[in-house]
Amino acid sequence: MLEARSGSVPEEVRLIAEKEDIDANKLRTRLAEGRVIIARNIRRSGKVNPIGVGEGLSTKVNVNIGTSATVYDLGMEKEKARVAVKYGSDTIMDLSTGGDIGEVRTALMEASEPLPFGTVPTYQAWIEGVKRHKGLPPEDLFLKIIESQLEDGVDFMTIHAGITRSLASSMVKGDRLAPMVSRGGAMLAAWMLENETENPYFRNWDYLLEIFAKYDAVISLGDALRPGAIADAEDDLQISELTTNARLLEKAREKGVQVMIEGPGHVPIDKIPADVKLMKSLTKGAPYYVLGPLITDIAVGYDHIAAAIGSAIAAAEGVDLLCYLTPAEHLSLPNPEQVKEGLIASKIAAHAGDIVKLGEKARKEDDEMSIARANLDWGTMFKLSLDPDKVEKDYNQFGAKIDSCNMCGPYCVFLVLNKYFEKPRYRS
Questions:
Q1: Which of 28, 73, 144, 194 has a C-alpha 20 to 30 A away from that of 100?
Q2: 136 touches 130 (CB < 8 A)
């Protein structure tokens, strides 16, 4: 960010500009102003493909993986990382709470290469604090864990600095249907309420900026008070935390530290555009990273579909990074197949949003697919799909015997009308 402000164009900016078909100087300006971030810890230079997130760039997708306190299977988590890389995730976050978290992180970071890798350091601080001190972690442990993870090469971290002690008190006394659904936020709220003191991240924000600047890593300002029920969307708690995050963001920009803002959560369709506009206005165009949003609370077992609907609208309105949800959301730790389903649903949503946001530049593959369909060019259709193996398997599931699919068979419109076109579209 500081290099971009000096007027020179960092090599990462040149690479992203070429990949995204955007002017490198425009991208440099947006990075300098904090409207674009590039998640890459300098400890991992050469191991991570630079990914740009923000204004004028394609919508990116994040996959969450990680062990739980009840299901510890490192092999399965590494397989999830491989699935995420194979099917086109842009970033990966490790949300592990089971096993030796440091060892798990090292293994999953390696399995996730070359994608930028994120964490929620509060989890490790809380769990290690409980194990070592038989109680809540001391304040300095929250900061030490962040520094150790940065030293390990973590590229971006969710830091719940915006939930203050007063907001935590208001939350537990409030009338939300789902008072809090953020795991990291709940840990910090309990710590503040028990110790009767301020959020260690909020109180030590200047110090955190120093250590993030040292590693050129990205802070993802968490939304501990995101709505966990659509009835709670855009309430006072959510907006108050967002306002606090906007102030913290301004301090980070002054120091040249890259920041993105995290958003909800559970939001009905009609409130999504207002949510995005408010966030972008308060933060002067900072990159926005949302979980979903889920547009209904009854889609249990199919939350990846509910999230994809909300994500497509959010992306079209200007959201920059989508966190996927899987069919197992609210039910279980996901398995690799569910990770794949959630990722592909989110990638469809991201692309649908980009067609609105970026226009013809994003629509190129759609046009190629349309031409291939009109030409009954199955090989090209398989190749352009997000999951070629599944698409080809579905095409052949009843034994394709003619050149059209077996939904229409010989009555395929392109077979019926082919000879009437001035230039026949299909030749057997």
A1: 194
A2: yes
Which residues lie closer than 8 Å to 143 by C-beta, 6 or more apart? 200, 204, 207, 208
Strand partners, 156: 118, 218
Distance CA 30, CA 45 (A): 22
Q: Count Cα neighbours of 92 within 13 Å in the Cβ-side half-sphere.
A: 32
Hey, what domains does the chain have and what are their CATH numbers?
A: 34-358 (3.20.20.540), 362-420 (no CATH)
* Whether the Cβ atoms of residue 51 and residue 19 lie closer than 8 Å to each other: no
Residues 6+ apart with CB under 8 A from 344: 87, 386, 387
State the Rg of the chain over Cα.
23
Convert the pLDDT of each residue in 266-293 to its tens digit: 999 999 999 999 999 999 999 999 999 9
Q: Is the pTM of this model over 0.85?
A: yes
List all residues 6 or more positions away from 236 whose beta carbon is below 8 Å from its beta carbon: 170
- CB 194, CB 132: distance < 8 Å: no
